Amino acid sequence: MNRFRRIGASSLEVHPVALGAAAFGWTIPGGRAVEQLDRYVELGGNVVDTADSYSSGRSEQIIGTWMRERRNRDSVVVATKVGKSSSNPGLSARAIRSAVDSSLERLQTDHIDLLYFHGEDSETPLAESLSAVGALIDAGKVGVLGASNFSTDSLLHARVLSSDGLPRFEAATLELSLMRRDVVDQAMTMALEAQRISLMAYFVLANGFLGRHRDLKPMKYEDTHRRRAFSHAGRLGNQVNRALDDVALSHGVDAATIAVAWALMQSSIASAVVGADTVSDVEGLMYGAEVHLTAAQLTELNRASVR
């Protein structure tokens, strides 16, 4: 059975669990990153999510070297983002062209399968940004386009522009977890469904609070992930983790696996982008695509996450 999910109206298909590479070259050194990448594809994964700004480009470099050494470029869906790097900030036509060329060099490839605008750019007309990507698509440098953290209104504006022949957004990255169900609200859900935009959810473990970082104690954290994870501590967080534990016990898996399984059952979602600390984490999180939650279990989790 083909478990892959299609991105928007495109022909691009992705595994339900994407490997996030934000920490590659930052808190996860190259060797450990390669171990994660190897295990991820061994388990059937095919999409790696990165950005030109992650670790100042080091994340893309690690992925590019890995693909070259493994000779597996044709079987990997490369998703990267432009717009936030210090060398090519913003979404002007010039910045996009330069950023894409730089990413292609670091990734050691001639095309990016899924290119995201890494946030909105209030100083550049969206039509200019879309037109620049249209030229890159025509040149074969970009496959399909996505939007990272765009508002509902901006997605609707893009839809209008696409009716004039400009590229359409096929995917959208947004934060979604049992701790943050407010980002993908009813209006956003309707916009995604109406435009056939696939949701690529990130922070599905609430920065690890629904996984290995649930028991963090009050202290000053220099690690951004741990600091964000601790921000979820409190009554609601305890409530959600108790519900996750109950459901996890019935499936014989870790709570983090259930958090991923819950995300994958939400509307319009194509893939959950997960970051892992270890190879073991990769294995457990990918198993979330195999777990089917019952209606009663979904209700239990949803009730626990009500503020």
Question: How are the SSEs placed, and which strands pair?
Answer:
Elements: E1 5-6, E2 13-14, E3 17-20, H1 30-42, E4 47-49, H2 58-70, E5 77-82, H3 93-107, E6 112-118, H4 126-138, E7 142-148, H5 152-162, E8 169-175, H6 186-195, E9 198-202, H7 224-230, H8 235-251, H9 255-264, E10 269-274, H10 279-286, H11 295-304
Parallel strand pairs: 3-4, 3-10, 4-5, 5-6, 6-7, 7-8, 8-9, 9-10
Antiparallel strand pairs: 1-2
Highlighted features:
8-stranded parallel beta barrel, alpha/beta, 307 residues, single chain, 11 helices, 41% helix, TIM Barrel, 16% strand, two-stranded antiparallel sheet
Description:
With 307 residues, the chain is an alpha/beta fold. The protein has helices at residues 30-42, 58-70, 93-107, 126-138, 152-162, 186-195, 224-230, 235-251, 255-264, 279-286, 295-304; strands at 5-6, 13-14, 17-20, 47-49, 77-82, 112-118, 142-148, 169-175, 198-202, 269-274. It has 11 helices and 10 strands. The protein has an 8-stranded parallel β-barrel with strand order 3-4-5-6-7-8-9-10, surrounded by 6 helices. Strands 1-2 form a two-stranded antiparallel sheet. The chain is globular, with a radius of gyration of 19 Å. The mean pLDDT is 94.
Strand order of the largest sheet: 3-4-5-6-7-8-9-10
Helix residue percentage: 40-55%
Highest-level CATH class: Alpha Beta
CATH topology: TIM Barrel
CATH homologous superfamily classification: NADP-dependent oxidoreductase domain
Shape: globular
Question: How widely separated are the two ends?
Answer: 38 Å
Number of helices: 11
Unreliable stretches (pLDDT < 50, length at least 5) are: none
**What is the β-strand count?**
10
| C-alpha-based Rg, rounded | 19 Å
Largest sheet: 8 strands, parallel, barrel
Query: SS-based structural class?
Result: alpha/beta
Oligomeric organization of the protein chains: single chain
What's the number of domains?
1
Average pLDDT value?
Answer: 94
Strand content: 15-25%
The H-and-E topology, N to C, reads as: EEEHEHEHEHEHEHEHHHEHH
CATH architecture type: Alpha-Beta Barrel
